[in-house]
């Protein structure tokens, strides 16, 4: 029996462990990297959007965002109403982004060694379809 979800989860664990080893010296952890990357691509978002994107509960995101705010990586500003807070990156985070991104990119290149481009395209397509199936 081949459990593809389990294998994908194990791959994510290996990747997270190795990425933590590379980015933690730069003051960031993989749980925060996903938030940084999302905000870098989007500019800003709400906490609810982050919860949906990362598939985590609100208390988890709240704790992570509080730590990131203390570290000076994010700012939580006013949203459309008082209940909504918009989250965005600080200048400090934008300055560090190239270092974090390079570490992530280099790790991905290492993980993809000896895999043909065609195989990677199929892998990407399968992953996206599996994610869509589970939404």
From TrEMBL:
It comes from the Bacteria. InterPro entries: ArsR-like_HTH, HTH_MarR-typ, WH-like_DNA-bd_sf, WH_DNA-bd_sf. Keywords: DNA-binding, Transcription, Transcription regulation. The keyword Ribonucleoprotein does not apply. Residues 1-132 form the HTH marR-type domain. The keyword Transferase does not apply. One of its GO terms (molecular function) is DNA-binding transcription factor activity. SUPFAM superfamilies: Winged helix' DNA-binding domain. This is Transcriptional regulator, MarR family. It comes from Clostridium cylindrosporum DSM 605.
């Amino acid at each position: 029996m081949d459990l593809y979800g389990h294998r994908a989860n194990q791959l994510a664990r290996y990747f997270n462990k190795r990425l933590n080893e590379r980015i933690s010296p730069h003051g960031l952890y993989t749980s925060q990297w996903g938030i940084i990357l999302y905000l870098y691509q989007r500019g800003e978002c709400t906490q609810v959007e982050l919860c949906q994107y990362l598939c985590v509960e609100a208390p988890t995101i709240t704790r992570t965002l509080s730590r990131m705010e203390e570290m000076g990586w994010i700012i939580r500003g006013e949203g459309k109403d008082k209940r909504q807070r918009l989250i965005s990156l600080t200048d400090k985070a934008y300055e560090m982004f190239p270092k974090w991104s390079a570490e992530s990119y280099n790790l991905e290149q290492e993980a993809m060694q000896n895999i043909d481009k065609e195989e990677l395209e199929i892998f990407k397509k399968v992953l996206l379809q599996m994610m869509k199936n589970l939404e």
